[in-house]
Structure formats: C-alpha cells, structure tokens
Sequence to fold (277 residues):
Amino acid sequence: MNPRQRFEEDGYLVLPGFKSPNEIARLRQRAEEIVDAFDPSEGSGIFSTRDQAARSERYFLESGDKIRCFFEEDAFDENGRLRAQKSLAINKIGHAMHDLDPVFDAFSRDVRLGEVASEIGLERPLLYQSMYIFKQPRIGGEVKWHQDAAFFDTDPPSVTAFWFALEDANRENGCLWVERGGHRGPLRERFVVSDGTASLERVDPTPWPTTQTATPVEVERGTLVVFNGMLPHYSGPNRSSKSRHAYTLHAVEARARYSSANWLQRDGSELPLRGFP
Ligand code: FE2
Fold:
C-alpha cells in the first residue's frame, strides 16, 4: 500500500524520523523564549475578576492571528498570580506562530511538508493554525475524543492535521489515540462562534469510539503524524514524570468553503493565509 492509499484507508499516516534533533531543538528553544518573554498579566492569567470567563474566552477567540500563551487551568491563584514556575504551568502556545515567528515559519514550511501534502492528495492547503503543546509531566490533562474538523468546518470537509512529536510520545505520557478508519464516519460536533460566544454543538448523535477500539499512536521524537480532520482521536493524561511536547499545524483546502462560524477567521486580518512552499 502506498502512503496515499494508507492515508485514505486509515485516516492517518505515521512518518518516523521526519524532523531532525536539530530542528526540534531550535523549535523547543524558541518556544521556551516565547514563554519566558510572556507576561502572564496580559490576559489569560486574570482570575480575580468576575468577568474572568468572558475575558479568557476573548483571549482565546482573538488569538487566531497572534502568538499567545495559554496556561493550565489551576495555574493561577485567586489573585491572578502563577502558583508554579511559568515554564511548568504553560499548557500551549497558539495560534499563528507559523506566520509570525521566523523559527516556527521555517519549521512549518519545510519543503518536504509540501511534498507530503501532495503525496496524500492535498491540492492547495492553507495553514490556518499552529499550536505548541506542552503536556506537562503529571498535570498535562487528557484531551477527550474529538474531530479537528469540528474547529475547521469547511464544505467539503478538508482540514488536515500535521502533528509533530517533539519528544517520544507513549501511553505513559499521553500519546495520541485514534479510531483507525474512523474518518469515514460523520462529523459529530461543531465548535461555533456566534455573537462573540463560543459553543460546542452536537450535530450528529453517532457515539464516540471506545477506548477498547482505539489505537495508540506511540511514536519517537521527530515523527510526523498526518491525519484527516474527520478522524476521531484523543490523548490521555500525562501520568509520567516526563513532558510530551508536540507541535501541530492545521491546513484547509483553498477551494473549500470556510464556515463563517468557525472561531478562527483570517478574513479582515492583516495576516494573509499561506500554504507550504
Ligand atoms: Fe485534535
């Protein structure tokens, strides 16, 4: 089976050794610098006021064309001060590093990524989103079953995820679990924004797969996992003493109609959408 057939059959593709230790080290260092430079009082850290939920929602919803840091839920005390070291309380960085930061840009626009994209049949993928996920030792939480297409609704469905293991990912530190072939099922949920408020809507009653039928995607550092945006997946909590850093990109086909209810909108943004070289 060639890579395209494998991708179409399973809904995902595992490419070990895709990124070199050097490329990974540069990205990790840059992420560390971004976190170091971040002032928690800027937004997500404000936990003492009554409108905290509204504020953190806005902080998230306005991050589509910015570089922002997001912290673990319990990272702040009632005075909005970090309980732990910033570098251990950070949950992720999002969502436009690939367009705003030269190091992230270079990592994300690797010529070989364009080759992978065409190999699996993508026509003109546009990079909408980047996320650097820390999955901290012991506190890195579970991410429940979902389909990434819930966040990038297009007609026809077209979102593809590129997931890079920046560290070994296994069952102990919260690797990905997928429903192999599950991308042929329906879109179950849609994350929609209306009047500045986001909500997750159930659009199809098909139940989520069970843990028993899920396949763990245990991979070594440097592996690229490409998956169809319709593929149901989750990741377990990190119960280990090691972090599980990962970097993800989400690409949408230029020809597909992008829903105006999606949270991430680049229309009207100064930042033009770009694909791979
Ligand atoms: Fe996901």
Summary: The chain has seven helices and 15 strands.
